Input
Amino acid sequence: MIPVAFVPDRALLDYSRDLIRSLQTPEGAYPASPTFSAYKGFCWFRDGAFIADGMSAVGEVASVDAFFAWCARVVLRYRDDIRAAVDAAAAGEPLPDDRMLPARFTFAGERAGGGDWWDFQLDGFGTWLWALDAHASRHGSDLSPYVEAVAITVDYLVSSWKRACFDWWEEHDDRLHISTLGCIGAGLEAASRMGVLDLARADLAASTAATIRDFVLTDGVANGHLVKWVGSDAVDGSLTSLIAPLRFIPADHPVARATLDAVEADLVVNHGVHRFVADTFYGGGQWPLLSCFAGLARAALGEPERAADYLAWAVSTATDTLDLPEQVDGHLLAPDRKQEWVDKWGDVATPLLWSHAMVLRLAQELER
Ligand code: BGC
Output
C-alpha cells in the first residue's frame, strides 16, 4: 500500500455514504441537493453519474444499480425524442436545442417543463455510460438490462457530439466545451467495450470516441494544455476529470500533466479549486468536488501525496454537521457578486451530494 499523508476521519466517509443512500429516491434518482431552492426535486445525469461512481467505489452496489436503472428508464422514456434528434441530424437539419434532452429530470424521470433552465447539455449522457461501465468492471454486473438504453444513448451522442451546448456549469451554449467532449468520448469508448452493442454500433462508438480524442488533442489544446472551449486558451477546473476518473486523456500523455499544472497555476489556491477565472456564481468560490477531481488526476499521475493534500482540503470544507457544500467562500474571485446569488437562491447548496461522492471516491482511491 502506498503511504499517503492524509486519510479522512471515518465519520465523514460513513456520513457521506449514509447521506447519499438515505436521500436516493424510491425511483433510484440521486437528488443534487435536498434543500437548495434551485436544485430541489431534480436529478442531473452529470451529478448522478459521478455520485454513482463514488458509491460504486465504496461497494454500494444496490444503490448504484438502482440509479442506472433510473437512467435507463429516463432514456427509454424519451426514445422517440432521441430518434427524432438522430434522424434530423442525419438529414442535415439538426433539431433546435430546446428539443434535445435536458440535463436534469424530476425524480419520476420527467423533463422539468417551463424551459427555465440551461437545459441542453450533452456531457451527462456520456458520463452515465462511462460510470455504468466502470461499475460493471468493478463488480461484474450483468449489463443485459441496459442493451437498448445504451444503444440509444450511443446513437444520440454519435449524432450530436459536435454540437455546441451548455457546459458543466450550465453556461456558454455557443461553445464546444472540452470537458463536455471528454465526457462524451469516455462514454462512447466505454459503451463500445461493454459487450451489449451490435458490432456495427460498437465500432461506430469506438471510432467516434477516437475522432473526439483526436479533435480534443488538436483543437482543444493551447500552450500544451487542454482548454475550456475550442478557441480559448484558458483552463477550467473540470478538465482534470478527463485525466481521472474518466481516463479519456492518458495520464502519461504530456497534455495531462500540462493541464493539471495549468489548472493549478490559474485556479488553485491552497488546494481549493475554482471553476474558471471569470466565475462570479456566489462570488466565484472554491469547489471541494473539483479539488477531488484534481486529486484523482494527481493520483493517476503517480503522486498520491499531492492527491492527499487535495482530499484534506475538500474534507476541511465540511460543516459541523459533516455536510459538504457546493463551494466555500474562503477565497472568492468576485467577492462583490456573492450577495446577489444569496438573495436569489439562498445560501450555497449544502449538502451537495456530488461533493460527498467525490470525497468518497478520492478517499477510496488513496486507500487502495
Ligand atoms: C452546477 C452544475 C450542477 C448543478 C447541480 C450547478 O450549479 O453548475 O454543474 O450539475 O448545479 O448540482
